[in-house]
Amino acid sequence: MHALTAFALTIGLVTAQARTWVVDAANGPGTDFLDLPPAIAASGIDDLILVRAGSYSEFRVDHGVRILGQGLVRCAGVDVGPVPGGQTLALTNLEVTARLFVGGIAVRGATGLVLLQDLRIPAGPLLSLSRFPGLVVRDAASVIVTGGSYYGVPAVQVVDSTLSLCGTELTGDWSSSFLGGTITTNSPGLRSFGSRVLIARSRVTGGNGASSLFLTREGQPGIDAQSSDLTIAGSTDMVVTAGRRAGGTPTPAVLANGGAVTVDTHAVLYGFDAPPIDGTATITWRRTPALVLSGGALGGTLSLDATCPYGGLMSFLVSTPTTATPLPPLGTLFLDRSAMFDALVSILNGERATASFTVPNLGALQGVTLGFQAIHAEVSGGTVALSNPAIAVLR
């Protein structure tokens, strides 16, 4: 048995004492609740809520619970309250529609860990009218976003928080039909105020400019970071694109004032008639390890893919995810050190390391949450650096 499988089984046995609830709008066999709010009210810490395909009411959650969508699950909005320290909230495979003047998902005041995996916030007229973010994170200790796609004004806004994103698409530009007309709106894909943000191997697009008889909207940067510590990691699959300008104002891919920005030298930044990065922040260009993952279905595979500086040693670390712990000069650790181990160690001849593991088809593993980070060591220079975290909720 592979060590990763044994570790997942151990977590499964630990969480087996937690209860599993089934939410099904169609009231199929085994249903406990027809909607999410009463299921969340009944759930305890570490419980698993399985949500079958269907449409559900908006909900609020403020304790550590695992909510796992099965099939196409639509929710009318999500509010995450002050999840206490030491607890983990995980939301997986949900499509969240925007609410007028509220947006899609709001995470506020969480001192515990919040995990968002494979969530989708589609474009729509309510986001255009309300001009609210698709995802807003405020005063949160640690939020980890893995996969998914987000639209909004901006797509993601983070204030006084620590946020990590990987394999994610953020779009601050779209047009939508409403009452027989067309609404066009634009914003950065990601806007940050006073936060620590790590984004890896993602696509971030700022809104295009638009001109009319009465109004000109200028193009928007892909990322707007104010007094923030921003890291952009990854190879050519880390792309930040500025919106097309409508008037005479050039648009950088990244606008950063105050704070510091670290950018992987292989990342792709497209400014529009402007340099890739503009503003007063301190800019550092260097190769940075970046991790994405895919899979995780029971009976399937879980695949890891890391880009890194050329050569050296690469190790994939696995544990239960936890709130961010800065470990200068290595970076930030998002894994529980008491249970952490190496899933694989590779000697690199290039700039990429991959690994794939079989996930046993065992019901006890459903909802088990695994956290991964890569750590890279340069043999010649002796530099050691941690990647971003990536989260897998087995399903």
Describe it.
The protein has 395 residues and is mainly beta. The chain has 2 domains: 3-285, Pectate Lyase C-like; 295-393, Immunoglobulin-like (Sandwich). Helix content is 7%, strand content 50%. It is built from 3 helices and 38 strands. It has a 19-stranded parallel β-sheet that branches. A 6-stranded parallel β-sheet has the order 10-13-16-21-25-27, with no helix packed on it. It is globular. The chain starts with a helix and ends with a strand. Residues 175-182 have low confidence and may be disordered.
Summarize the structure.
This protein has 395 residues and is mainly beta. The protein contains three helices and 38 strands.
Query: How helix-rich are the residues, as a percent range?
Result: under 10%
Estimate the global geometry from the Cα principal axes: globular
Taking the sheet with the most strands, its summary is: 19 strands, parallel
User: Could you tell me the radius of gyration in angstroms?
Assistant: 21 Å
How many separate structural domains? 2
Topology:
Blueprint lengths: L2 H13 L4 E4 L12 H7 L5 E9 L2 E3 L4 E10 L2 E3 L7 E5 L2 E2 L8 E4 L4 E5 L2 E2 L3 H6 L4 E4 L3 E5 L2 E3 L4 E4 L2 E5 L2 E3 L1 E6 L2 E6 L3 E4 L2 E5 L2 E3 L4 E2 L4 E2 L5 E11 L5 E3 L12 E10 L4 E3 L6 E2 L3 E4 L4 E6 L5 E7 L5 E7 L1 E7 L3 E5 L5 E7 L4 E7 L10 E9 L6 E10 L2
Parallel strand pairs: 1-2, 2-4, 3-5, 4-6, 4-7, 5-8, 6-9, 8-11, 9-12, 10-13, 11-14, 12-15, 13-16, 14-19, 15-20, 16-21, 19-24, 20-24, 21-25, 24-26, 25-27, 26-28, 26-29
Antiparallel strand pairs: 17-18, 22-23, 30-31, 31-36, 32-35, 32-37, 33-34, 37-38
